[in-house]
Amino acid sequence: MNFLSHFYFERNNPDENMVMGVVLPDFIKNAEKGKNLYPAKEKYIFETIPSQNSILKGWERHVLVDNIFHNSDFFKLQTAALKQIILPIFENSPVKPFFLAHIGLELILDHLLTIDRVVNTNIFYDQLIKTDRQALDSFLQTCSLHDTSTFFKFLDSFISSRYLLSYQKIENISYALNRICMRLWDNPFTDTQVALLTEKLILFKDSLAQNYLSIFEDIELSLNVIRAK
């Protein structure tokens, strides 16, 4: 799941450090490509410091939600459906259809949450701003990210750009997908293909709009069951 989809489960959570933890794994992937952190190994340290323990709880929630989502029938069915919709535009493109369908589904979910005002993107950014940066820095260093300057440069840019507000426009989802693919392949799409991708995403979004919240409700139910154990 993408940033706003993860935030959905914390949209009423007043703990800004936990909100940061929920999106932190994806921030690390974007800021420190190839760097893997394993905070569970240092759990005993974080549990003694409330602010860092909140970040850890958020991180664990991210991993759990992603695991439930990626093993759901919804994910399997909708990625297969989107793959079939976008296949006609892949001629002479090096992009793997399943990869694009996977990321595309996640971005479309963020788009729908935004346009339906299920989550408030500005509140999400406000929570990130309020995060205890000293605690975040210590958390990352304990996880062996000893130079955190690149990460915080990314975080500052992410917050100041308010980039996720652009997800309200479907054409910006196509742009984002193209940019993601450019990290992996040279010249993944022509301008014409990007325009066609937008048309296909509109069709997919319309087919998903009536029942997309079901996956969030199913995940929330699973989380409640796990908490009750």
From TrEMBL:
GO biological process: fatty acid biosynthetic process
Organism ancestry: Bacteria, Pseudomonadati, Bacteroidota, Sphingobacteriia, Sphingobacteriales
InterPro entries from the UniProt entry: ACP_PD
Superkingdom classification of source: Bacteria
Annotated Pfam families: ACP_PD
Protein known as: Acyl carrier protein phosphodiesterase
Organism encoding this protein: Pedobacter metabolipauper
A GO molecular function held by the record: [acyl-carrier-protein] phosphodiesterase activity
